[in-house]
Amino acid sequence: TSAYGVPIESKATDADGFFNIGLWPHNTFYQFPYSQCMGTFMMIPLDEERTILRFGYYTPHEALPAISRAAMDWMNNELGPEDIDLNITVQKGLHSLGYDQGRYMIDPERSNESEHLVLHFHRLVYRALHGQGDPIQ
Length: 137
Hints:
The chain is an alpha+beta fold and 137 residues long. The chain folds into 2 domains: 2-95, no CATH class; 98-137, no CATH class. It is 30% helix and 22% strand. It has 2 helices and 6 strands. The strands form 2 sheets. Strands 3-4-5-6 form a 4-stranded antiparallel sheet, with no helix packed on it. The protein has a two-stranded antiparallel sheet with strand order 1-2. A hairpin with a 5-residue loop joins β5 and β6. The longest helix has 26 residues, at 66-91.
């Protein structure tokens, strides 16, 4: 078995899963399965139209394992650029103080395909910009 093109050298543990935690308003902490590292990104608004995204990676290992290096490479060269391109495409030309368009796929069981966290985040953004009202019902 392999991950990121690198053989997995040990049995899977509870620590080998995925997590993604957003810390409002600008920070995210995440781990990809088997990566043996934690990643962060910080969104830094420059003005109304531009944002810088800063990535960081952290590992408890003194020497970086090959699987960690491969996971970082995958994020930096495949998944990250793909996500950035998707976000630019969706948001280009909005020029708004909040996004209130489109539909969300909400699963009452909160499966990993549900967008309940996206909806929650959009509500946080709206409230931060406009007060306590909720445009999304």
